[in-house]
Amino acid sequence: MTGPRPVVLSGPSGAGKSTLLKMLLKDYGNVFGFSVSHTTRQPRVGEVNGKEYHFVTRDQMQKEIDAGEFIEHAEFSGNIYGTSKAAVQAVQARNQICVLDIDLQGVKSIKKTDLKPIYISVQAPSIEVLEKRLRDRRTESEESLQKRLNTARVDMELSNEPGLFDLIIVNNDLQKAYSELKEILAEVAPPGVMCDDYPRLQGRES
Ligand SMILES: Nc1ncnc2c1ncn2[C@@H]1O[C@H](COP(=O)(O)OP(=O)(O)OP(=O)(O)O)[C@@H](O)[C@H]1O
Ligand SMILES: Nc1nc2c(ncn2[C@@H]2O[C@H](COP(=O)(O)O)[C@@H](O)[C@H]2O)c(=O)[nH]1
């Protein structure tokens, strides 16, 4: 892989990865680009095919996996999720820094590739807070919520493994978490870009 180092955001479902990513793309959307994953899960209200995910059937996804079109894929909460080679190449073709939002299995798979990203884990302050966030988000059935919480308990334990992540952000105060994210991203972004004035100068601040 050529170009600047990609960025991997991981962490339990409900910890706040998408929220932080949305803030980043709103402020620095011409610097960073989101790697649009494939998933077999159903779209949530407001999700658009090709934007949040490429929503596909299990058959379609399995065929593409078998054809070697994915860098990594994983089964999460009863669905397949995966990063296609094309998704990463599309971002790199725009000369943007590629950001992947993937689970812990994906992190372990990416570690075996030549992508060499920065690995960031986003964690909630506690499992209780995580559960409240997931319930308040109102996207999960009780069954899916329990699966996600069980996976989250494992994720919270394993993410502390030395060397697995370059940074663990505990997302309690959202603005503080965002500042920590911007601070580490200054290491991969072009010099000066991650300054607080950049979004205003680009007319990207609301
Ligand atoms: N610091 C925070 N304080 C309070 N609520 C938060 C905070 N960060 C995110 N949230 C809320 O928590 C919920 C979960 O956040 P989000 O959807 O970003 O999580 P996620 O890690 O992307 O989850 P998933 O892996 O399922 O996509 C959202 O409703 C979001 O608005
Ligand atoms: N290994 C991968 N994990 C992925 C990918 N895209 C998303 N995810 C992870 O799935 C869960 C659930 O996401 P949700 O949108 O259903 O809430 C979350 O932890 C994501 O990080 C992927 O391409 N590969």
Automatic annotation (TrEMBL):
<comment type="similarity">
    <text>Belongs to the guanylate kinase family.</text>
</comment>
<dbReference type="GO" id="GO:0005829">
    <property type="term" value="C:cytosol"/>
</dbReference>
<dbReference type="GO" id="GO:0006805">
    <property type="term" value="P:xenobiotic metabolic process"/>
</dbReference>
<dbReference type="Pfam" id="PF00625">
    <property type="entry name" value="Guanylate_kin"/>
</dbReference>
<dbReference type="GO" id="GO:0001917">
    <property type="term" value="C:photoreceptor inner segment"/>
</dbReference>
<dbReference type="GO" id="GO:0006185">
    <property type="term" value="P:dGDP biosynthetic process"/>
</dbReference>
<dbReference type="InterPro" id="IPR008144">
    <property type="entry name" value="Guanylate_kin-like_dom"/>
</dbReference>
<dbReference type="GO" id="GO:0004385">
    <property type="term" value="F:GMP kinase activity"/>
</dbReference>
<keyword id="KW-0418">Kinase</keyword>
<keyword id="KW-0963">Cytoplasm</keyword>
<dbReference type="InterPro" id="IPR027417">
    <property type="entry name" value="P-loop_NTPase"/>
</dbReference>
<comment type="subunit">
    <text>Monomer. Interacts with RD3.</text>
</comment>
<dbReference type="GO" id="GO:0005524">
    <property type="term" value="F:ATP binding"/>
</dbReference>
<dbReference type="InterPro" id="IPR017665">
    <property type="entry name" value="Guanylate_kinase"/>
</dbReference>
<dbReference type="InterPro" id="IPR008145">
    <property type="entry name" value="GK/Ca_channel_bsu"/>
</dbReference>
<keyword id="KW-0808">Transferase</keyword>
<keyword id="KW-0547">Nucleotide-binding</keyword>
<keyword id="KW-0067">ATP-binding</keyword>
<dbReference type="InterPro" id="IPR020590">
    <property type="entry name" value="Guanylate_kinase_CS"/>
</dbReference>
<protein>
    <recommendedName>
        <fullName>Guanylate kinase</fullName>
        <ecNumber>2.7.4.8</ecNumber>
    </recommendedName>
</protein>
<feature type="domain" description="Guanylate kinase-like">
    <location>
        <begin position="4"/>
        <end position="186"/>
    </location>
</feature>
